[in-house]
Amino acid sequence: MSQMANRLSTEQTAPRSLLEPSDRTRPETMLQLTVRRFFRHRLAAAGLVVLVILGLSAILAPLATHDPNALSVSERTQGPSLNHWFGTDEAGRDIFARTLDGGRVSLTIGLAATAVALLVGTSFGAVAGYFGGKIDAGLMRLTDAFLCFPQLFVLIVVGTLIRTTELRVLQGSIVPIAVVIGLLSWMGLARIVRATFLALREKEFVEAARSAGASNARIMLRHVLPGAIGPIVVQASLLVAASIITESGLSYLGFGVQPPTATWGNLLRDAQAHMQTLPVFAIAPGLMIFLTVISINFVGDGLRDALDPHGRR
Amino acid sequence: MGSFIARRLIGAVPLLLFVSIAVFLLLQAAPGGPTGAYMRRGAGLSGADLAALEARLGLNDPVHIQYAKWLGRVVQGDLGMSVTSRRPVGEEILDRLPNTLYLMLAAWLVTLAIAIPIGIFSALKQYSKFDHVVTSVTFIGQSIPIFWFGLILILVFYLAVKNPFTGDPLFPAGGMQTIGVPPTLGDRLIHLVLPVTMLAAGWVAWYSRFLRASMLEIVHQDYIRTARAKGLSERLVILRHAFRNAAIPLVTLMALDVPFLFTGALFTEVIFSWPGMGRLFYTAAERRDYGLLMAIIMITSVLIVLANILADTIYSWLDPRIRLQ
Known about the structure:
The complex is a heterodimer.
Chain A: H1 2-11, H2 30-40, H3 42-64, H4 95-131, H5 133-147, H6 151-164, H7 175-183, H8 187-200, H9 204-211, H10 216-224, H11 229-253, H12 264-271, H13 279-307
Helix pairs in contact in A: 2-13, 3-4, 3-13, 4-5, 4-7, 4-8, 4-11, 4-13, 8-11, 9-10, 11-12, 11-13, 12-13
Chain B: H1 2-28, H2 36-40, H3 47-56, H4 63-75, H5 89-124, H6 129-143, H7 146-160, H8 185-219, H9 222-229, H10 234-263, H11 266-271, H12 277-286, H13 290-318
């Protein structure tokens, strides 16, 4: 408090206009600026709140509700009740608990697949853009080749192989699906990162770092990569949404995560047989996917505005 | 332009070789491999039978020899046999293709008929009520999982809402026509309603947002002001000057979507039991018909490459500012 008073007293001689912005003693950091601009975007803030609730409910679900995998012969395919909010499936499992638990699996796969895509896409894009020349040409050809794969078809084939061959041991696991989705979706990211690296590698600060003796790896990670962080974050948020949709679609078709592990997709597959009697079963998991994806898309929009260097302050 | 296309086609060859090797390895070298389908059917094959089968199919050759043989046949137009139907893969595909094209073209026409006016109007009346509604609805359309939307359509228009006169479901939820009665135009059209709605919902969202964005970019250009200044009617300015230019990126987007006219919308065809390419692929995967899976993936990859070249060519042809080197 006394420090503040001191500073004010020394500055008292300066004209009022020089003190602007008056109430801030130090300039806003980049992070503060981004956060402030993000929360100005109301739908993005709402999206973030929804995502936090969804994430918490997925994590805390086992504490509050039924065991998602507990079978109950006496309570098969029941309608919604006070005990079972969304009713029970044909094995007597609580659909509400399975929907929350499925969320945990679907969200994990979305995040994990995005992490894989981030790792591959960012490294390929960074190396291609930074070194240029033959390395760039080679890596970009590889990117083009991956873009030729019909993603859904390849995923279905991988799913078939996991389901029916000696790879069967991987069936209940979410790792192979997450990895394969990631390996089929890094291409856009690689192109974006490459473009930024191409643009930034000629800048003076890179020159300065190099003449100061920094290694290529250090320049790429410490000097150039931060400049690409905006587009990377935005693209990554969209990838999480896309991966969740891809996973749930694949599991819906029966080529994704296999029961009894619940995901939003394979819940919808189970629900199909009971559309007439138990419509809530077909509505709830899909609504969760929709809520998640639209929230992520709003957050992505907010991030795009918040991280745009040319945007409004 | 001819030399550009030729160069791009030559450049596509290594891409397609890479894709074919990757897919071949995935399917042929996978544990359980190509004989899996025979084993699954429990046809009482002994170990010796299986060995003979493997020898007959050339599965004892090293992988690269198998690949070379397969590639040689494909280049000659022999896509192999379907294990489950014992018919040539090419025939299977040609059987299904018309059904897929029929569904996709119907959905595509509906999409354009809705998306183009919506895109134009919401751009012209930016920030109006109409624009707000359009932007929100298309945002929802882009976030909704398409297969779930299909299920909801069945739930509402097949299970919940009934035809008030007959008590039948409002719309049929499966197949291309009523089985067992002579096909009529009305019957075929009514079978299109739900699958087309499911497909068009997603596409309209993408196309109209895309067109809105490119219209917004163009209506602020100087040549639009010039067109207005020389006294053209607003209708002419919008249709002849603005829309024609805004449509260029839309046309390339459509060219990029051509492969999906061929593959069909897998989810739509599965949910509505539509006998098209997407469902063919789905059932082939369920029956582990590797030959069929491989052929469809390869054809699709070729189409994706060709669609990319087509999109670039159309773009430069429609937009003289772009020069292909």
